[in-house]
Amino acid sequence: MRVAGVLLLLSLSAAAQPVRNGDLPGPLPLFPLSNWWNADISAAPVDPKSLSYIAFIGASRGMHPDFGGDSGDPSAPIYGMPFIVVGGSQPLVPVTFDYDDESDYGAPGRPLGYPIPEEAKTQQKWIEGGLAGNDPNADGDRHMLIVDRDNRLLFEIYATRWNGAASRWEGGSGAIFPLDSNARRPDGWTSADAAGLAILPGLIRYDEVFGPDPIRHAFRVTVRSTNGYVYPASHRAGSTSGALPMGARLRLKANVDISRFAPYVQKIFQAMKTYGLIVADNGSDMYVSGTYDTRWDNDVLNPAFSSIKASDFEVVQLGWQPSAASRRRSARH
């Protein structure tokens, strides 16, 4: 009995530990099926200015998978974004934000703070870019994505850093999303992403690409310049004439032949036909975001993505939303 008790305690202790790229709480995809990330856009109308938006990007511009494994460069050791899964008992710690008037300091009905693992202060690969929170040379977007699986909350921080001199976590901005809600950020508010959207639900994840089911959500994409924002985004990060707004949706055209690709790549591209790409940040044109995972094979992904050009996409009518009837049908399935 003592041995059984010890094993139970060890099991409970292990379950309480934060896990990088751990199992996400079901049901999947993240957020309700009626959420914009999970909306079927295959029959949505094309925007009248679709061709001009594609021309602004550059019709011959190829896609790029903005994810992968270890780069071998100690100053930027990983490709893609890690995410962290924690239990409801993970301690919450306060975070000081640069954009404090557009950031969440705690979840409704919960104590203030974010469930940041202690290990992230000094260990690599808990934060986008791979460097530890206390690294003085860290730069870039440094997103930190945390899922509290028990309370069904998603915590996301931009420009995450540990300030040892002040003994506090700091970030550019932060947002908390209840996983059972379709609530948008207030108009004009950012999140951990420039568009004011959640990041994790738009990442290509290894577990779903190689799982048994189709991918049932849109993907996060960046373009070099943007112009305002449209639904479902809530925040602008540019006013470049002719550029797409934050929240715009790109859809891989139905007639693009994807049969020549490996089956798992076909699965990714089919999701781009059914759910599309959502413009979420300024960055390199047609960079599609995914998770950090050493199992990705970029020798397959890079040439496959680059062979699909911007001209193979069309822009869905800006601000398009599924009808109330279709949202009800999605919620029932």
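The above is record 1. Record 2 follows with the same two-line structure.
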Amino acid sequence: MPELPEVEFARRQVAAWFGGHRVDEIVLHDERLLAHGATARLIGQRVNAVERRGKFLLVRLEEHTLVLHFKMTGKVVPQDGRRARMTVSIGGGLYDFVDTRRLGKAWVVEHDALDDATVVGVLARLGPEPWPVPLEAGVLHAQLGGTRRAIKVALLDQEVVAGVGNIIAAESLWRAGLNPASRAGDLTQAQLGTLCDAICAVCESVLAVEVGEEIAYLNDPGRGEAPNPFFVYQRDACTSCGAAIERLTQAGRTTYWCPTCQGGRR
């Protein structure tokens, strides 16, 4: 599942491939990929910048923005024969949007319509970015707004913090020593400050292990025998104290946590 670091990695790659070039052709192999607009509008336009907002990739051209959301398995790669949902010809190369689960979405949007919630949905309502500069504790406190939700559940809300998903939330709470079931509105400023630093550190550590030309998702067949890079997520034992990792279902997602390292107040 791509979260902030994976989308940032994709942003860097796409910027290197697309930046400064004009789009020669776009072939849409799967019409269901396109949620809004028409890819034909992008032909001949120069790519001025490639940005990331939360889990969204924004390819900014001269008149329009191509917005991509990778969902579970989407990624942009140099064409290599895999089944693609979309192919972009640009800068003398061919690049595919591949997506095994076929859940990803694309939008072609005029620049001034990016903040229209009826077009790209949550994009207009995303919370603050937690990386590359850690959020201030006061900012996260304000975003939580005294919610009675568990902190793990609150972190998954993209309107609270942009780009944090199930893995980052679990890893960050472990680093911060916080029980994932703790009520978010009860956490102290000091605890929130530690959590903000932990989220930023997790994003940085994930980016540090991303190499090559495409995102390597955990459990992706392309990873081969690559080891699990996380400290608590999908672990059997805590990498710090050795205690058995427990699992908790929250908001339909599996939370991995250490009852010894994170067994504080709830």
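The CA atoms of residues 83 and 98 lie 7 Å apart.
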